[in-house]
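For the sake of transparency, this paper describes our internal protein records without simplification. Such a record has a labelled line for the sequence and another for the backbone structure tokens. Nothing more is needed to write down the fold, since each code stands for a local backbone conformation. For reference, a complete record is included directly beneath this paragraph.
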Amino acid sequence: MRAQPWMHSARFDLLWILAPPFFAVLLVAFLQAFFPALMDEPLHPGVWLLTVVGIDVAHVYSTVYRAGMKPKLLWIVPLAGFIVSVLLFSLGPNIFWRSLAYLAVFHFVRQPYGIMRFYQRGQRSTVLDKLAIYSASLYPLIVWHLGSAREFGWFMAGDIFVWNVSWLLPYVHAAALGLALAYIAQEWKTRAINLPKNLVILGTAAAWGFGIVVWNNDLAFTLTNIISHGLPYMAIIWIFNGARFWRPDSRTDWRWVAPLLFVLTLFVLAYMEEGFWDAWVWSDHPQIFPWFSYHFQPVAETSLPWIVPLLALPQLTHYVLDGFLWRLGRSGS
């Protein structure tokens, strides 16, 4: 049997890159079964801090470790992004948020493909491989667009187009099922099964399928979306860049100190950003950001076209930089 092409090691990859989508689905299934009332309530502040701030926003800042390869991009992309964002917001907040949502969707769809291709290094990628990994996320998105409105949005309600042409959905389901069967048949004939590649495809299909198609619930979508995307991303950044930054001397064994510092720096940056969001714009979690809520007040509506693009800039920069930085070749990776 061919040796599996792990990024770091079997244990690390399985725990931090491949397991998160399955863990997210099992977590939501557990909540559905034993705490159904929680599914219709807002995210508990502690859970919100751990997931939205500690994973979703924090993973955005991990791009800084990768972008050190091309430092000029760290001011060129934000400057251009801010100008475009202000123009979009001037056309209307809905246009701004919808544009940012679809940029995020593109980023989220591309990540599983990139991970799959890494696990296929040195191997040929078939057409069915590519169709399988893309359909794992695009199939639920197509169902979302063609079906009725969901009880959630990407960033906020209504930021994803919904055409409500449900009569097309049986054809979409049939096409997805046919593609899945074709892929299974291909893998059945394969002599050397690539385990991590198949776990990426299956995990993506599980997180997106359950999070969007099966469960029509904001909490379910939030948890499956954030955990399945953010944790693997930070783990990959740690492998290729974070570990090198915090452990420049490979002979130094910091054990858990180095990864803890890596995660802590990301959390601090994410906490600061969300503190300004909450104080200036949302005012949703003053108990989590007491210093910010004490020292800052919500900005005037006339200032939002400048403040919102400014606060969204880390996300926008992350989405734009990410696809480019991983194409810079093997130098730095």
About this structure: The two ends are 27 Å apart (CA to CA). The chain has one domain: 10-38+58-247+299-325. The chain is about 70% helix and 0% strand. The CA atoms of residues 139 and 176 lie 7 Å apart.
